[in-house]
Predict the structure.
Amino acid sequence: MSLVQYSAPSTLAEALQALAGGAANRPLAGGTDLLVQVKLGLRDPQHIVDLKRIPELTALTLDDNGLRLGAAVPGAIVTTNREIARIYPGFTEALGLIGSSQVQGRCSAGGNLCNASPAADCVPALIVNRATCHIAGLGGERTVAAEDFTTGPGTHCLEDGEILVSLELPRPAPRTADAYLRMIPRTEMDIAIVGAGVALTLDESGVCTDARVAIGAVAPTALLVPGAAAALIGTTLDEDSLRNAGYAASGAAVPITDKRGTADYRRKVVGVLVRRAAAIARSRIEQPT
Amino acid sequence: MMQVRKIHVSTTVNGEPREFLCEPGQVLSDALRNNLEMTGTKEGCTTGDCGACSVLLDDALVCSCLVLAAEAEGRRVATIEGVAQDGRLHPIQQQLLEHAGLQCGICTPGVVVAAKALLEENPDPSEEEVRFWLAGNLCRCTGYDKIILAVLAAASEIRGA
């Protein structure tokens, strides 16, 4: 291990200065990925910059505009917030699926994005909620849509020295709900073979007026699937429409075969999960809790 | 290799102010055990999978093997050593004994810390809730049933008290 320095700046400006020296400087949020990677020898940073003392990274606000979530806010803080769970049930469930109770004490939606696993559970849920990623660098600030943040397995759009500061989920329209489902070989604490997020808006007569569908673990990054959304919009979410959305998702998937599942299996299951997640989102609109 | 400067950390462990010097890459479980000589917290996997090193950090349940020791600066750490009060075992500890919920004992401190965190948030958990909450505490001896029964019995005892 060549780690020779740890710092915990209290402002974004100080953190950006500390990270400016190149890839040997690594930002730390919850550490549930980074510290494991360091221990396993997969990363060898010289300087770890702890972001958890920076207010923008740890703030959480929920108001009429939506949810603004600091990139380092732990999962447990989000999933135990009943108002967030009511407004964004699918996102809350997806974030809560990451790791154990102990991991939930540290892991964050921002870290899940930055770790850039194709199987990251909360990424499809962020995408269907139209989340935007607020990024800061010495050159200024910019925003990126959640679906454009990850660029491949383990890679993302951040330049060296940039920080993901916060995520912004707009307030959903009336009669909107989301859902996230994943397939894992075990009952809990596993990596998704397939993930599927769906957000729907229905009018008063039950016709779907807006939809977002995103799939995970079936491509190098989580994918937004406009074709699956198109199969739902304008319908009453009858069986045929749900099935067509599933077919569109299966068609968009470009999975690999690995020890956890074959490409054929993933392609089939992603369609099933999209169909089921859409049905759950609909039931959440029709029978709000 | 660059000279590694040690970091001075002032923290609070089980309500007591504590200080130690750590390496930048040293994790909290290691600092608790080797710098503060509090060996109740166990190290199992050291990669956040087994839960043996569970502690509370500012009231959040975490694996102390995945926390840098330097992160504890100015924060509150609660370990297994703070669970029994005045020589009296906590109901979770007592019920683990009575249900034979431990054999080798390596997982037990983590189980106790995690279960106590659960019962403080949810005094009347279902069996399923206990099993899900403790899914990150691996035990290779008991087969879990006795641990789960002990936690449920402790919850019942605490509610009745």
